[in-house]
Amino acid sequence: MRNYIRLILDIKVNKNFKAVGHVAWNLLLIATGSVLGAGAVNSILLPMEFFGAGFTGIALLVHYIIPWAPVSIIFFILNIPVYILGYMFVSRRFFLYSIPGMIFFTVALVYVKFQVPLNDKILAAILGGIIMGAGTGITLRSQGSGGGLDILSVMFLRLFSIRLGTTILLFNVALLSAAAVLFPIERALYTLIFIFISSNITNIVVTGLSQRKTVLIISSRWEEISKVIMAQIQRGVTILSGRGAYTRKEENVLYTIISFNELPPLKKIVRDIDPDAILVVNDTLEVMGYRIGNQPHW
Questions:
Q1: How much is the pLDDT for 184?
Q2: Domains plus CATH for the chain?
Q3: Max Cα separation, the chain?
């Protein structure tokens, strides 16, 4: 009985330790992303008078119109209604993790600033896009967000399967169209470069190497290939029935879903077993399912 109680206590301690570690890891991701994003704003966007992206872009736009209004305060106020939407349409966990995200980013906007020795506006837009995109992507790798457009992006991903970077890009094109009316168009065009780079870096960080591939394999040695795939790569294989339109010959077609880094070994398996096999590889937008799914757990 004593050993049983000790075992139960050990299990509870391990679970609590894992839970604390999980929360700490998510907060670390959010804090890191917030520092990078705020650094891009204070060190590149403001000195170069770019407009920025998302709600940060709106905050900068208001700041340029009303110079005495701090970017951090404007950003905080804009986030209040968006957080309500995040609670309603995403999840309570996402909402709770996003609160420290907004706080971290707001505080970082006040304190984080570093020198970037760049005078060329195009190079500044590229570098700013890389830093901001990396920061946004790192934040979204957690179970929360930095607030603002991040919340809307996750909401549209869940409701309409629109990729994160796509939502960011479209929103900001509309933002820049308005900014170009109020300010010189050159500033809007430089910012467009920044936004394009940022949205693509965000997609790479969030889904880059975790992007799944669907593979179709047509081979007379399909049975041997499927066994090796399941044994070595440890991925499931579905056998589809097919028939050649010209030969009218019945063929079995293998269908499997793999990760990006599993593609080279799979090609080698197919090539070694049947050099004449037909192999078709397709990109996926997102995959839901046990073990093979690549959706962030928001």
A1: 87
A2: 2-207 (no CATH), 212-283 (3.30.70.120)
A3: 78
